[in-house]
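Bumping with the actual sequence this time:
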Amino acid sequence: MPDLVEHVSDTAFWVAWHRAQEGRRRDALFHDPLAEKLAGERGRRIARHMGVGRAMAWSMALRTYSLDGFIRDAVRDGADMIVNLGAGLDTRPYRLDLPAGLSWIEVDFEPMIAYKNARLADETPVCRLERIACDLSEDAARRELLTRLNARARHILVLTEGVIPYLDNDQVAALAADLAAQDHVSVWLTDYFSPLFRSLSARGKIMKRLARNAPFRFDPGDAPDDWPRFFAAHGWRIDAVRFTGEEGRRLGRDLPLNWLMRRMMRFAPEARLAPYRRMNGMVRLTRGHDIRPL
């Protein structure tokens, strides 16, 4: 079977497809009416190819919901610019209730920017939206862009949703240092995956199908504090975490399992389940070097 994910940017179609499906649920956590328009048949085919659809739909829905909440909090607290690095097919500037004067900057590869501009040409964002083509792996271009954006706002939130896992440790360190060098970047939202998640997922079909063209590369270490230690070393400390499993439990949206696994979990002690509920999630980072446990 040919690789449907030929480049890391193809994963955006996969994510958009699952976001579109969330809106079909009676208990939808959010509605993303433009997601299906962007995902198209390509997104459906990639989602089918990647498999484990129910689990991925669950994870994508809770990831999106958690980030929506973090963004609303930041806007309420005075953020005047959102910089979405590796924006993919995100549509938050169209679907969230945002101030009209808020600047929202989307950055991605040129083909993704061109595709999105064409598909959404007739749609109107709720805030001031700008799209910029930039290969974030090019250090000089990335730094020039961040410096330029830093001069345009006072309180910037940077979002890297589904970006960090595909970078190697040196690339993540460079990005963290570049963001810390911008004095108006005050909040950074990014993904978290625990060593347990990496261990379990390495044996799954999704990682095997991503391995050729879009492998997960970021690996800060196997100790519990290696992840926060890595970011603290580059100027960012953990301010808040929304773990996918815990958010799902709180919202009455537990991971979809077969009847046997549900029964086993019902009788398992919470101490045994906690590491699984905290395998992944979204983290809000703020400036600092102290190591705060996850």
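The tokens above came from a reply further down the thread. The first helix runs from residue 11 to 22.
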